[in-house]
Amino acid sequence: MAAADSSSATLQRRDLCSRGIRLAGKMRSDVVDLLDTYAEQQGLDASASVAAVEGVPAAAVERWDEQTGTQRLLENLAAYRAFRVLLAQMLEEQQEQLGEADAALSRALAAVLLQVSAFAYHLEELLRLESRGPPSEEGARPPQPSHLGLFERKLRGLGVLRELAQWAVRSARDLRQLTKPSLGSSSAPSLAESP
Amino acid sequence: DSHIQYERVGADVTMKCGSMDWDAAVTWTANGTDIDESHLNGSYLILKNVDLTQSGQYSCYEGSSWHLKYQTYLRVGTPPKEPVLMCRSNNYPKGFYCSWHLPTPTYIPNSFNISVIHGTREMVCEKDVFPKNRCHIRYLQLFSTVKYKVTLTVTNALGKSSTTLTFDEFTIVKPDPPESVVAKPVPNNPRRLEVSWQNPSSWPDPESFPLKFFLRYRPLILDQWQHVELSDGTSHTITDAYAGKEYIIQVAAKDNDIGTWSDWSVAVHATPWTEEPKHLTTEAQLTETTSASTSSFMPPPTTKICDKGAVVGSGAVAVCWTAGLVLAAYGVLFI
């Protein structure tokens, strides 16, 4: 019985991971397009360096290859939950602005927000399979940037999208690590580098 | 008392004979050959508008005793021009390397100093033993949006020059080309070629960082390539090859998500399977020669007329060739 359960869990995990990887790929592609549109709309240089933005989860990580499966899932989940809030804030601000061009941007933002939510759901399901369960959503939410001026908000938006694009790449990698056969769920670290 | 002296091409050089007075009687030699007095101003040697050929050992001897009073090795060269720097990660996510060269030689020794800055952090780029003008660096962080700034400074005795590259972690990712590309005909399939290859050995973790591939192929006699992009797997069967034509095939690789395509792999050649020619009659041989001159290639024979399986005797082969001629003529019309 236990063996059947574990093999069914393995299959489920693999299925969730491969769907998650595809979703991450699509999300990244859409975010990159959105980045260009957003930068153009807001009159910003898409390649401009943006300082680390408060409340935006940074995708950058040290010793990525040493992370456990559970660490990966938890960090990803925390990030996408934060992005869900940040994108919702951006959408709200966008919708306050009028104009057709802005409406297209709002639609694109909404589409990405949907994907972010879907991905967060995938992660929650994967954590449930780890018998860990996802952590509750209480806790610090990204601060509402009401005190920021318009330009600062635009720059922040650029920072959010840019970081999200990085996360989408990282997430696909993280999920691939999870699908490695020798990798246990929570305990075993990732494989030593292949020769 | 011997040392090295570096001078720019085109400079005027004055060499003193050590501590000898200006009016001392001396003899100068260049690489053992006496230098004419016309180049002397007192005991000083004057070389005007020096060029590269004037590099060498210069010695000064006291007039009567022939004691060696001074010796120097003159190296004529140029200060360095702006170096050419390139950085690339062919072993992502382990790290990246930077390599450099000078656009024009300086003819004198140069030293290179490279600095790599990531945000506020200075990273060490370890110089490779071979090739010399290269260093490698391990990634401390992955998935960072902070750019890397690499500055290379070239210095020699006559001057210095530097250049800076700024880039993202993702943009410099470029795998090495796929390895061990093999193309084989498929038995009993005149239009197929089976191609297989391996991930470049420098790519450390193809499981977590899978590569996608781009295959290109063309018959040798045509200029236009066919392309196929493959998102997984390290093999592909070409199914639209022209029968009997030798093909050239190459493969390139790219990380699935980031970076740029590798260079093309070494080219391999292959010809699709053809049936061993049966005993040809003289007539058939003549027909073959004629058809070769009227068209640049034979369109694939239709199976109805020239079904290889149906060919039995030499008479049937002659029919095939004739039919082929007709098709070739049509082929010429449609090129």
Topology:
The complex is a heterodimer of chains A (195) and B (335).
Chain A: H1 2-42, E1 61-62, H2 69-96, H3 100-129, H4 150-179
Helix pairs in contact in A: 1-3, 1-4, 2-3, 2-4
Chain B: E1 2-8, E2 13-15, E3 26-30, E4 33-34, E5 40-41, E6 44-47, E7 56-62, E8 68-77, E9 84-88, E10 95-101, E11 111-118, E12 121-123, E13 126-127, E14 134-138, E15 141-142, E16 148-156, E17 159-167, E18 179-186, E19 189-198, E20 211-219, E21 226-230, E22 235-238, E23 247-255, E24 268-270, H1 282-294, H2 314-334
Parallel strand pairs in B: 1-8
Antiparallel strand pairs in B: 2-6, 3-4, 3-7, 5-6, 7-8, 9-10, 10-14, 11-12, 11-16, 13-14, 16-17, 18-19, 19-22, 20-21, 20-23, 23-24
Helix pairs in contact in B: 1-2
GO cellular component, one term (chain A): axon
GO molecular function (chain A): ciliary neurotrophic factor receptor binding; cytokine activity; growth factor activity
Function (chain A): CNTF is a survival factor for various neuronal cell types. Seems to prevent the degeneration of motor axons after axotomy.
Descriptive terms for the model:
heterodimer, A: 195 residues, mainly alpha, Growth Hormone, Chain: A, 66% helix, B: 335 residues, mainly beta, Immunoglobulin-like, 5-stranded mixed β-sheet, 4-stranded antiparallel β-sheet, 24 strands
Can you characterise this structure?
The complex is a heterodimer of chains A (195) and B (335). With 195 residues, chain A is mainly alpha-helical. Chain A has a single domain, classed as Growth Hormone, Chain: A (Up-down Bundle), CATH 1.20.1250.10. Chain A is built from four helices and one strand. Chain A has helices at residues 2-42, 69-96, 100-129, 150-179, and one strand at 61-62. In chain A, helix 1 (2-42) packs antiparallel against helix 3. Chain A is elongated. Mean pLDDT of chain A is 82; it is low at 183-195. The radius of gyration of chain B is 34 Å and the shape is elongated. Chain B has three domains: 3-77, Immunoglobulins (Immunoglobulin-like), CATH 2.60.40; 84-167, Immunoglobulins (Immunoglobulin-like), CATH 2.60.40; 179-270, Immunoglobulins (Immunoglobulin-like, Sandwich). In chain B, helix 1 packs parallel to helix 2. Chain B has helices spanning 282-294, 314-334, and strands at 2-8, 13-15, 26-30, 33-34, 40-41, 44-47, 56-62, 68-77, 84-88, 95-101, 111-118, 121-123, 126-127, 134-138, 141-142, 148-156, 159-167, 179-186, 189-198, 211-219, 226-230, 235-238, 247-255, 268-270. In chain B, the strands form six sheets. A five-stranded mixed sheet of chain B has the order 1-8-7-3-4, with no helix packed on it. Chain B has a four-stranded antiparallel sheet with strand order 9-10-14-13, with no helix packed on it. A four-stranded antiparallel sheet of chain B has the order 12-11-16-17, with no helix packed on it. Residues 289-320 of chain B have low confidence and may be disordered. Chain B is mostly beta strands and 335 residues long. The chains are: A mainly alpha (195), B mainly beta (335). The interface between A and B is medium-sized, with 25 and 21 residues. Chain A: InterPro entries: 4_helix_cytokine-like_core, Ciliary_neurotrophic_fac_CNTF. Chain A: CNTF is a survival factor for various neuronal cell types. Seems to prevent the degeneration of motor axons after axotomy. Chain A: Keywords: Cytoplasm, Developmental protein, Differentiation, Growth factor, Neurogenesis. Chain A: Belongs to the CNTF family. Chain A: This is Ciliary neurotrophic factor. Chain B: The chain crosses the membrane at residues 310-333.
